[in-house]
Amino acid sequence: MEKASKISIIIPAYNVEKYISKCIDSVLKQTYSNLEIILVDDGSKDKSGHICDIYKEKDSRIKVIHKENGGLSDARNYGIREAQGEYIVFIDSDDYVDSNYIEELYNLVIKDNVDMAITSHKIIGKKVKFKYEKSKFKELKEKILDRMLYDEDIDVSAWGKIYNKKLFKNVEFPKGRLYEDAATFYKLVDQCDYISVNNIPTYNYVIRSNSISQNSFSIKKMDLIKSTEEMTEFIKNKYPNLINGCKRRLMFSYLSTLAQLSKSNRRNKEIEKYLLKYIKENRKEVLKDKRIPKRDRVALIISMFGFNTFKFFWKIYERVIKK
After folding, report:
1. CA geometry: angle 277, 279, 282, nearest 5 deg
2. What letter would DSSP give residue 292?
3. pTM of this structure
4. Coil vs helix vs strand at 53
5. Do 146 and 245 meet the contact criterion of CB atoms below 8 Å apart?
6. Of all residues in the chain, what percent are helix, strand and coil, respectively (each to 5)?
7. Phi/psi of residue 178, each to 5°?
């Protein structure tokens, strides 16, 4: 019988003392046991680093790295360099996983002989009617990219996936950039032939009001557009059949950034003008695409009436989904 591969779980931690214990406890309860658990304390100012050290004393599989704050990308890159496992899994420190999370992912890569597998996730703290089909399947990388471009059950997040470590030989997360997953995921997919997918959710993504993706607007939020421009340019050149999906994905980055801007108390007319200009110039063509998500279509139509109208309706939307 073939020996089970070692899997390195990388958990970056920064000021998450309220949440990290639940995350680590869920990892220690995994039905798959051949694990290396790498906790990367990214210069936390609270007790996160101390909590990591306490867990290290409890389980010999845990390794703790204390480093100066460099951001999520830098912490993940540190973890990858330290990883001794054949496979790598990322978990955000304020999320948690089901007990069969690792086993399900590992079984997929072994059974289907692939270098990456993806599992679905549940969203905790947000009103979402979650529907899924209990299915597992293997698809060509081009189909995975296509579904990612349209947000059809495939997202760009680093978590919720297992990777053969060799995929990171020439790929790093971009240090100092927000939305680093959008700048990385497609490069990993491109190296695979097939990727396996499990539609049954085993990862629990927790919405927090002070998380990176939920904070008020800053100029760094424009990183989403930069990363998406790089992504879509790469995909258009290598997979020309996916050009319509690229147009949709790039439009999404502008709409998402506009939505972030609409939540800010301070109005930035220069950025507002820049975002609306692109949306206006490309709105008609994207609306012709019957595959774009309903939320995108509604946002595009609302944007026709200007920023104030968009802001008003987006606030209503945010309240509805949080109930």
Report:
1. 105
2. S
3. 0.93
4. helix
5. yes
6. 50, 20, 35
7. -75, 165
pLDDT tens digits along 17-42: 999 999 999 999 999 999 999 999 99
pLDDT mean over 5-18:
97
- With cut-offs at 50, 70 and 90, classify the pLDDT of residue 224: very high
Helix runs in the chain, H state only: 20-28, 48-58, 72-82, 101-112, 141-149, 185-190, 223-238, 243-262, 269-287, 294-303, 307-322
7-206 falls under which CATH superfamily? Spore Coat Polysaccharide Biosynthesis Protein SpsA; Chain A (3.90.550.10)
170, amino acid identity? N
Instruction: Give the closest residue to 42 by CA, choosing from 74, 8, 10, 20.
Output: 74
Tokens 């109005």 map to which residue? 267
- Per-domain boundaries in the chain: 7-206, 216-322
The position carrying tokens 């051949």 is 34
The answer to whether 87 and 8 are in contact (CB under 8 A) is yes
